[in-house]
Inverse folding.
């Protein structure tokens, strides 16, 4: 199933149509179904406005809009991690960067009200094995056949342990160790996930509850 957004002058939602000046249709893949009406109403008009101002061609504009949502979502996640897509000069990259910048603008003036729950993220407290290293931040949740990329929200690691604390050093060792994390699991891959895009989903950790001994 594909969402089709048709631009009309009125600027209001009718089904899955949204206002705009040209009467042009933009089609997106099933991933758009993961965005709530709240998110689409907050972001789509601005995303389309910027796409029409910066990007030529309907397909590239659709890509810009799709990645605009992902860039904004990355801002809501609060990890400070950005993304480089291919050569960093394409419409996808421009959309991602524009979405992140739009989040930062809204957040700075107190207008940012969207939550990760609005983006379909699920709040979970889970035990699993975590390992860290060069281009690695892997979490294997217990009792799930899954491999997630972990991003820590800003301030979470510092709140858990000081830089010189052996517990913090153990957390970021290459060896797998049992950990209990609380955080938000993305509903989809959310764009590029980890080294070579090898991970199922991204898990945004908002609290580190425990770090166990490293496995041999």
């Amino acid at each position: 199933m594909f969402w089709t957004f048709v631009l009309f002058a009125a600027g209001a939602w009718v089904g899955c149509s949204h206002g705009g000046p040209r009467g042009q249709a933009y089609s997106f893949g099933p991933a758009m179904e993961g965005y709530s009406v709240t998110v689409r109403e907050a972001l789509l008009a601005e995303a389309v406005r910027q796409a029409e101002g910066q990007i030529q061609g309907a397909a590239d504009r659709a890509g810009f809009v799709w990645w605009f949502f992902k860039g904004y979502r990355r801002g809501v996640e609060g990890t400070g991690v950005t993304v480089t897509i291919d050569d960093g000069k394409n419409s996808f990259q421009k959309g991602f960067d524009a979405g992140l910048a739009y989040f930062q603008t809204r957040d700075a003036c107190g207008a940012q009200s969207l939550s990760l729950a609005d983006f379909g993220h699920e709040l979970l407290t889970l035990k699993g094995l975590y390992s860290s290293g060069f281009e690695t931040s892997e979490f294997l949740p217990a009792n799930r056949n899954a491999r997630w990329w972990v991003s820590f929200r800003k301030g979470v690691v510092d709140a858990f342990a000081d830089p010189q604390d052996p517990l913090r050093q153990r957390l970021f060792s290459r060896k797998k160790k049992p950990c209990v994390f609380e955080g938000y699991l993305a509903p989809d891959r959310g764009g590029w996930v980890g080294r070579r895009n090898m991970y199922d989903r991204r898990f945004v950790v908002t609290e580190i509850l425990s770090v166990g001994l490293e496995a041999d």
The chain has two domains: 3-108, 122-211. Strands lie at 3-8, 18-19, 25-28, 122-133, 136-141, 148-152, 177-185, 201-211. The longest strand covers residues 122-133.
